[in-house]
Specification:
Blueprint lengths: L3 H24 L29 E7 L4 E2 L12 E7 L10 E8 L5 E8 L6 E10 L4 E13 L4 E9 L3 E8 L4 E6 L13 E8 L4 H4 L5 E8 L2 E5 L2 E3 L21 E5 L5 E5 L16 H32 L2
Antiparallel strand pairs: 1-11, 1-14, 2-13, 3-8, 3-12, 4-5, 4-11, 5-6, 6-7, 8-9, 9-10, 12-13, 12-16, 15-16
Helix pairs in contact: 1-3
Length: 326
């Protein structure tokens, strides 16, 4: 049963989202949510390309319980239903092993859900991929979506979100803000609604290759903002690229040693810059000319909230139809 306070907070979120989307569409037409792809579901045996032989390495951002958000609140993972990231793809269009810009979340029963923009061997475009691991100890992966569309180009600005809806469970939405295209999928039923409390290894650069020539011209790969329930994380998060006896994430992305040419830097806005070692410390690449970073974040957040709102209205309409049947 939902109390009046909870109902009002949810109504307020949707009203704010509607105002934001009106502002966004009045100012720009670069974001398109009307052409989202239907989920391309794969049989488990089709997931071979996800995990090439050998271990991957991962370097990225961990967000602990209690991290501070922009509105002065704190992260309560058990109450989180929307995690979103605004980031720039690496300037890499050729690789000898799969590379992901990947978001990962552990649910309250220990399952891990993941969404990623990824580049595979023999491809020059970044695609959209999602999977979940029902039993991390056994490393059994269930592919959810695998598609090169919307054919993301190295250097594109991407907004990616994993969010929960009562009727469909956890979902993925990826928006390429550079070309205005999108992809979406549902992780399906069976996953719990709540996330596990602890240090979540939320966002990482994960790679199955350590070949220096693949990365040496990648530029500054930037996570501009991480939004939790629509609020930017501004304090408390930390970088993780290997075992640390002072930090204990709930899970680790990758597992192999991060190559010594890969550098990470936590920015003043609690974002992350990954760069080839010789470039470490140089300024991060900015958003496309003429588009303000904060505006991009608000536009993307509005887009994903409107998608959620439309789905909620649709699902409630379906529920009423079912109730009216005698």
């Amino acid at each position: 049963m939902i109390g009046l306070g909870g109902a009002w907070r949810r109504r307020k979120v949707w009203l704010i989202a509607l105002l934001m989307i009106l502002i966004v569409y009045a100012a720009t037409s670069r974001i398109s949510i009307g052409n989202a792809k239907s989920p391309e579901r794969l049989a488990p045996s089709s997931g071979a390309n996800y995990y090439s032989g050998g271990a991957s390495w991962g370097a990225g951002l961990v967000v602990p319980e209690g991290s501070r958000t922009a509105n002065g609140g704190r992260v309560d993972w058990a109450d989180v239903q929307n995690v979103s990231a605004l980031f720039r793809l690496p300037d890499i269009n050729e690789t000898d092993g799969t590379i992901y810009m990947i978001m990962s979340l552990m649910t309250s029963n220990g399952s891990i859900i993941q969404a990623a923009a990824g580049l595979y061997q023999n491809s020059s475009y970044w695609g959209t991929y999602a999977m979940y691991v029902a039993n991390p100890a056994r490393q059994v992966y269930a592919p959810i979506i695998s598609t090169e569309a919307p054919y993301m180009v190295p250097g594109d600005i991407i907004f990616m979100s994993i969010y929960f809806l009562p009727d469909s469970g956890w979902n993925l939405l990826l928006l390429d803000l550079t070309n205005g295209l999108s992809a979406s999928a549902s992780f399906g039923p069976g996953l719990p609604a709540s996330l596990k409390v602890g240090d979540q290894f939320v966002f990482a650069l994960e790679s199955y290759t350590s070949t220096p020539s693949v990365f040496e011209n990648m530029g500054n790969v930037t996570l501009y903002a991480l939004l939790i329930n629509g609020e930017a994380v501004v304090n408390g998060s930390y970088l993780y690229s290997g075992w640390n006896n002072l930090r204990y994430p709930l899970f680790i992305v990758g597992g192999a040693s991060v190559p010594n040419f890969m550098a990470m830097n936590l920015t003043a806005s609690s974002g992350v810059v990954w760069s080839y070692g010789s470039q470490w410390g140089s300024p991060s690449s900015g958003p496309p000319a003429g588009l303000d970073l904060i505006f991009l974040a608000l536009a993307a957040a509005a887009a994903v909230n409107v998608v959620i709102l439309v789905l909620l209205i649709w699902s409630r309409g379906k529920a009423k139809e079912r109730l009216s049947v005698r």
